[in-house]
Design brief:
Number of strands: 20
Shape: globular
CATH class of one domain: Alpha Beta
Strand content: 25-35%
Structural class: alpha/beta
CATH topology of one domain: Carbamate kinase
Bound molecules: adenosine-5'-diphosphate, aspartic acid, magnesium ion
């Protein structure tokens, strides 16, 4: 008998048929004597649609109200999944994030889990119930409903697996596992049997939305081994775990493309100490994550000045622009240029630590395709470039072909 956390994403619960399918799988484990905690996302498209509705009313809706709104998506699916299990004669109880004991900080729309008190989950499991928990949501100590950032049901599942010390954590989705690139863009991408936390973390934070990056960070921190697999078949998936020696033999593990980035350039920023600190403190205070930062020679007006570019998540662009505009009189730059027509293409592999020449080959591949590189950033195990959004998929295919085949 095992204690298992299973997470089902939006497409896996997209309609009543799929929900029945999920219930049938859960029932198999339950009848086998396993204790199952199920985490579900909103039905596919529901979260996007709720965001769209709010934005039809106001461009920058209040974030507390957004959380109140978005949490309803997952609340629908927990109840439907419980009903589907009841229809199979299985005892099941649905719980919201708050009812499941998930406590977060108060940063609405991207709250962090502070702690989980799984008392109620344990009690219900002991009584023979399947417990179904709403993904993506929690509650502050003061009782405010929060959400954990897009794709946050992955985090709910991994954090619960750690909190209840589950023997198994399975992330069910609409692909068979983690591939060397998004199989929807690169048809000959290959499924990996296993991947290290660090590689998965880089791929996820660089755009492979198969796992939410914060959930992988959490898994690494708490040593939660998990499997990414399909809810539509019984094929073995991809195991995500600590790095092993044999993993270093592969130079490039995967390629990812992030189309969810936007770029802000401040033209002719005065070039003296403290300016960058002032800008990024203000951005940080607004809870906006900055990814790449590049400072380059000004095409401004002659005084000692630099151009400063940085990237943020697309949904934060308006907010970031507003923060920057608010600093204009204090700092005195010429103007702000903002664009969301960019993509970030990245190569990831722990083998890059011990192999050279990867960057050169990547840049050469892009040059042959006539694709211009706008920004570059590297770490020990990744190389990323910012390019024109329109060339993103072509670039990804070319780079995948050059390094993986
Ligand atoms: P869920 O709703 O189950 O959470 P997501 O849509 O968030 O599923 O993530 C699954 C999708 O991630 C796949 O349909 C696939 O198109 C995409 N994806 C991007 N990169 C990868 C990759 N490297 N391997 C597998 N899937 C990927
Ligand atoms: N429903 C949320 C989203 O679409 C959370 C999730 O699916 O993991 O982002
Ligand atoms: Mg997801």
């Amino acid at each position: 008998m095992a204690l298992i956390v299973q997470k089902y994403g939006g497409t896996s619960v997209a309609n009543p048929e799929r929900i029945k399918n999920v219930a049938a799988r859960v029932a198999r484990y339950h009848r086998n004597g396993d204790q199952v905690v199920v985490v579900v996302s909103a039905m596919s498209g529901v979260t996007d649609n709720l965001i769209k509705l709010a934005k039809e009313i106001m461009a920058m809706p209040d974030e507390r109200e957004m959380d109140m709104l978005l949490a309803t998506g997952e609340q629908t699916t927990i109840a439907l999944t419980a009903i589907a299990l009841h229809a199979l004669g299985i005892k099941a109880v649905s719980l919201t994030g708050a009812q499941a004991g998930i406590v977060t900080d108060g940063v609405h729309t991207k709250a962090k889990i502070q702690n989980i008190t799984p008392k109620r989950i344990h009690e219900l499991l002991a009584q023979g119930h399947v417990v179904i928990v709403a993904g993506f949501q929690g509650q502050t100590p003061e009782g405010q409903i929060t959400t954990l950032g897009r794709g946050g049901s992955d985090l709910t599942a991994i954090a619960l697996a750690a909190a209840i010390k589950a023997n198994l954590c399975q992330i069910y989705t609409d692909v068979d596992g983690v591939y060397t690139a998004d199989p929807r863009i690169v048809p000959n991408a290959r499924k990996m049997e296993e991947i290290s936390y660090d590689e998965m973390l880089e791929l996820a934070s660089l755009g492979a939305k198969v796992m939410q990056s914060r959930s992988v960070e959490f898994a690494k921190k708490f040593g939660v081994v998990f499997e990414v697999r399909s809810s539509l078949n019984d094929n073995p998936g991809t195991i995500v775990k600590e790095e092993t020696k044999s993993m270093e033999g592969v130079v490039v593990r995967g390629v990812s493309l992030d189309k969810n980035q936007a770029k802000i350039t401040l033209v002719a920023v005065p070039d003296h100490p403290g300016i960058a600190a002032r800008i990024f403190k203000a951005i940080g205070d607004a809870a906006i994550n900055v990814d790449m930062i590049v400072q380059n020679i000004s095409h401004g007006s002659g005084k000692p000045a630099t151009d400063l570019s940085f990237t943020v998540d697309k949904p934060d662009l308006l907010k970031a622009q507003k923060v920057i505009e608010g600093l204009k009189s204090e700092i005195g730059f010429d103007k702000v240029i903002a664009t969301d027509k960019i993509a970030k293409l990245s190569l990831v592999g722990v083998g890059m630590k011990s192999h050279t020449g990867v960057a050169g080959k990547m840049f050469d591949t892009l040059a042959r395709e006539g694709i211009n590189i706008d920004m570059i950033s590297t770490s020990e195990i990744k190389i990323s470039v910012v390019i024109d959004l329109a060339h993103g998929e072509k670039a990804m295919k070319a780079v995948h072909a050059a390094f993986i085949g």
